[in-house]
Amino acid sequence: MHKFNPSYFTRGMSSMSKILAGLVIFAGMAGATGWIFDIYFLRGIILNASTMRINTAIGFILSGIYVFHLPSRKMLYQLLALVVCLLGFLTLLEHIFDLSLGIDELLFVERDSISEDGKPGRMSPSSAMAFFLSGLVGLFYMLPNPLYKTSQFFSTIIFFIGLAPCMGYLFGESLFGGANIYSQMALPTALGFVCLGLGLLVSFPEKGYVAVLHGKYMGNTFARIIFVLSTIVPAILSGIFILLNEHGYTASYPTIFLVCMAYALTTILFTYKHLTRINQIDAQRVQLLADVEVSNKELAHTNAELAATVEELSSTNEELTVSNEQLEILNSRLLEANYEIERLSHTAIAASENKYKHLTESISDIFFALDHNLRFIYWNKASEINSGGLTAEQVLGKSLIELFPGMKGTEPEKCYLEALRTGEFQRCTFETTYNSNQKLSYEVSVYPYEDGLTVFIKDITQKKQAEIQLRELQSRFESIINSAMDAIITTDENKNVILFNQAAEKMFGYCAADIIGKPIRQIIPQSLYQPYAPDNGFGYMAASKDDPNKNLYGLRADGNNFPIEASVSDLKLGEKQYSTIIIRDITLRKKAEQQEKQLNNELINQNQQLQQFGYITSHNLRAPIANILGLTQIFNTTNPVDPINQIAIENIKKATVKLDDIIKDLNEILVYQKAINTSREWIVLKDVLNDIKISIAQHIEDSNAQLTTNFSKVEKLYSVKSYINSIFQNMLTNAIKYRKPGVIPKICVSTTVVEEYICLSFSDNGLGIDLEKNKEKIFGMYKRFHVHVEGKGLGLHLVKTQVEALNGKIEVESVLGEGTCFKIFLPYEQLN
Question: Which residues lie closer than 8 Å to 551 by C-beta, 6 or more apart?
C-alpha cells in the first residue's frame, strides 16, 4: 500500500491552487478578450444566455493574480485583493439600494448582452457576493496573523456560489441558470467561481480546516475520503432529485439544491471536529506504539545482558568450586610452612642479633643507647676507646651524670632530654679540650625509639677546620672577584645566576641580591643578538666574540641596552654544570670604532668629492672660461664701436652667467657637506612631509598629485633635519616634475626595517628611467634623462651626497614608462 507523504500532499495542493488561479486568470482574459474584440462566444458560450460582464472579467484577472502569489503577502497583492473586495461590495450596494455608481459600464457599453434586471453591464448579486468574499479571503490570508479558518469557510461559500449555476446549466433548471436576478450567472462566470473557490480553499493546505486533510494519521485519511464524498455526493444527489422532481416525486428544485448544499456543509463541519480528535488519538497511538517498540528493544537487550550475566555467574561458580579445592590444599601447605617459618625465625633472630652486635661494634663512631632515665643500656667498642677505657661492664646500668658529671647542663644533655620529650630526632654539636691544648669538635645525633634513645657521636674536628679554611678561601675569592674591573657572573645548570660581582652590579644596575636566582637572559637577552642564535645555551655569546659582525648587548635595570663582549668557561662538578661569564662593557670601543668608521667614510666621500670637483673644474669650469678667453681674443680694442665687440660682450655675459651657476651649485654642495656636523635631533617624518607639502603645494595642485604615506614601521629618526628635509624635497619634486603626461601622478612614501637599516621608500608612476643605459650615471652631477622638463640634473646628486654623509646608501628600481622607486637605507642606529 502506498504510504502517504505529507510533504508531497502540501506541494500538490499548492500546485493545484496555482493551476486553479491560472484557470481563473484565463477565464477573465477570455471574457475581456470577448469584450475587446466583440466575440460573443468568449463572453457567454451559450447563445441567448447570460454573458460574463467586463467587471466580472477584470475581477477574475485580479483575483487569479493575487491567489497565484498568496504565500508572498506583498503589498501589491494586498492592494489587488482590496480592489476585488471593493468591486463586489460596491456592486452589492447598487443592487440593494438600486443605485448607479458608474462602475457598470465604465469600460464598455453593452448593446446585445442579456440584462434581465434592465441594468446593462452590471454583474449579478451572486457574482458580486462571490467577489466580495474572495477579496476578504485574500486580505484575511495576508494578515500578519492570518484567519485561516474564516477564509476557508468563505472560500467554500464561493465554491457553492459557482457550483449552483453549473448545476442549473447541467440539468436545465432555469432558477440556477438565470431565471432570477439574484442567481443569474453566465456559465464561464460560474466555472470561474468554482475554480476561484477551490484555489483559495487549498492555498494553505497545512492550515485551518484544510489541515485535517494534511497528515498521515487515521483521521487525516478519513478526512480526505469524506472531503471527496462531500463534494461529489451533493452533485449526484442533486441530479437524482431533479430527475425525480420531473416525475413529481420530490420537492422543488431550489429546495433540492439547498438540501444537498446544507448536507455538504454540515458534513464537512461536523466531521472536522471529530476527525481532529481522531487524529489526536491516532497520534497518541502511534507514539505509544513507538514507545512500546523502544521498550521491547530495551527489554530484549536487558534479557540478553541477563542471560550473559547468568552464564558468567555459572562459569564463576565453577571456578570458585575449583578454587576452594585448591585453597584447602594450600591451607594444609601453609600450616606446614608456618611451622618451618617459626623455626627459621628463631634462627634468623639469633643471627640478626649477632649481626647487629657485630655491626655496632664495628662502627668507628661512638654509639650507645640510653633508657628513659638516661641510663646506659648499650655501649659499643668505639665508646670504650674514646671514653678513656670504660668497658661495657663498667657503664651498663649507670646513669649519664653518674659516669660523666661534667655533662650536666651541656648541649648534649639538653638534646637527650628534648628527644625524650618530643619523640623526634635531635642533633647538636659541642666542643671539648683534649690534653689541655687540642680542641675537639663533635656532632651528636639522637634517635628516639620505644625503649629510650640511640646516640651517635661523630668527631667533626677536621670538618670544622676544613669549613674555616673554606670560608677563608671564599673570602679571598670574593675579594678577588669584587676587585675585578670586568663583570663576573656564574650560572648553574639551569642558566640561573648564582654569583654576581660588584663590577656586574655597577655595569647592569642591579644589586646582587636582586639578580641571584634569576635567569641570565634577564640581563643578556638573546633577542638583542642579531642575527639570532639557534641554540638554547651560551652559543650566541661565543659567536658574538668570534664574529665581530655579530653584536651582543646587555640590558641594564633601567631598560637601556649597551654593547658587551663576553667569554664563557664551563665547569662540571659531578652531574652539575656551571658556567662563568666574564663580561666587558665595550661601549667606548664601539663609539671609537664608529667614529673611526665615520671618519673613514668621510675621507672616502671627501676624496670622491675632490675627484668630482676636479672633474667639474677641468670640464664644467673650463668650458665657460675657454669661451671667455676666446671672446676676448676677438674683441677689437682699437675700434670699440666694432659690431663684433657687441657680439663678444653678449657671449661673454652668457659664459659668465654659466660660470656663476656652476659656482653656486658647487657652493650649495659644500653647504650640505658642512651641515653634517650640525647637531642631530629627533625628526618626526609626518611633520617633515607636511612641511614639504606646504612648500610645494602649488606643484601638487597643478598636477593633481595623489600622495599616500605609511610610517607605521618607523615614525621618527634621530638625524640631521636639514638633510632629511632636502631628501624629501628633492624626491617629491622629482616625482611630480617627471610625471607622465595625461596621467595623475601617484606618489607613495613609506618606511620599513630591513636587517640593520631603516628603509625610506619613494615610489611613483611617472616616466621612469632606462636603467640599462643610465644606471651608472643616475646620481651623477648635471645628469638629466628627460630633457623636455626644466632642471639642472643636480637633485639626485645632492640626495646621494646627503645619504652617504649619514652613513647610508641609496638604490633605485625603475621601468621606463611605468614608474620609479628610490630606496634610501639609513643605519638602524638612527632610531637611538
Answer: 529, 530, 544, 563
DSSP 533: P
DSSP state of 3: P
Phi, psi of 233 (to 5 degrees): -60, -45
Using omega within 30 degrees of 0 as the cis cutoff, is the peptide bond preceding 146 cis?
no
Contact 760, 823 (CB under 8 A): yes
Collect contacts of 118-124 with beta carbons under 8 A, ≥24 apart.
119/94, 121/53, 121/54, 121/55, 122/53, 122/55, 122/91, 122/94, 122/95, 123/53, 123/55, 123/56, 123/59, 123/91, 123/189, 124/50, 124/181, 124/182, 124/183, 124/184, 124/185
Q: What is the dihedral of CA 239, 242, 244, 249, to 10 degrees?
A: 140
Q: How deeply is 223 buried, as exposed, middle or buried, from its count of CB atoms within 10 A (0-12, 13-18, 19+)?
A: buried
Of residues 778, 703, 783, the one with CA closest to residue 747: 703
- Count the Cβ atoms, other than its own, within 10 Å of residue 573: 8
Cβ-contact 190, 197 below 8 angstroms: no
Distinct helix (H) and strand (E) counts, the chain: 26, 17
pLDDT 10s digits, 716-749: 888 888 888 888 988 898 888 888 888 899 999 9
User: Does pTM surpass 0.90?
Assistant: no
341-364: b or e for each residue (b if 16 or more CB lie within 10 Å)? eeeeeeeeeeeeeeeeeeebeeee
DSSP codes of every residue in 439-467: EEEEEEEEEEETTEEEEEEEE-HHHHHHH
Q: Which helix (H) or strand (E) holds 685?
A: helix 685-695
At 805 the three-state DSSP class reads helix
**For residues 200 and 20, what is the distance between their CA atoms, to the nearest angstrom?**
9
Amino acid at 733: T
Taken in order 532, 537, 538, 543, is the CA torsion positive or negative?
negative
* Side-by-side strand order, sheet with 366-370: 376-379, 366-370, 452-459, 438-449, 426-434
How far is 208 from 152, CA to CA, in rounded Å? Answer: 7
DSSP sequence for 285-348: HHHHHHHHHHHHHHHHHHHHHHHHHHHHHHHHHHHHHHHHHHHHHHHHHHHHHHHHHHHHHHHH
Question: What is the residue whose three cell numbers read 493545484?
Answer: 16
The grid coordinates of residue 514 equal 636582586
| CA proximity to 637, closest of 648, 629, 647, 645 | 645
**Where do we find the cell 468554482?**
194
Q: What is the pLDDT of residues 328-383, one digit of tens each?
A: 787 777 777 777 777 776 776 666 556 556 666 667 778 889 998 889 888 888 88
What residues form DSSP beta bridges with 519? 496
For residues 59 and 91, give the distance between their C-alpha atoms in angstroms, rounded to a whole number.
12
SS3 for 249-280, per residue? CCCCHHHHHHHHHHHHHHHHHHHHHHHHHHHH
Phi first, then psi, for residue 295 (nearest 5°) are: -65, -40
The stretches in the chain having pLDDT less than 70 are 1-6, 40-41, 43-50, 105-121, 171-184, 214-286, 345, 348-362, 434-438, 527-550, 602, 605-606, 608-624, 626, 655, 658-662, 664-679, 780-794, 829-832
Is there a contact between 446 and 416 (Cβ–Cβ < 8 Å)?
yes
Convert 111-149 into a string of H (helix), E (strand) and C (coil): CCCCCCCCCCCCCCHHHHHHHHHHHHHHHHHCCCCCCHH
Q: Which amino acid is at 112?
A: D
- How far apart CA 563 and CA 550 sit, in angstroms, is 11
State CA 59 to chain mean position distance. 58
The residue with cell 670622491 is 608
pLDDT in tens, 279-321: 666 666 667 777 777 877 887 888 888 888 878 887 887 887 8
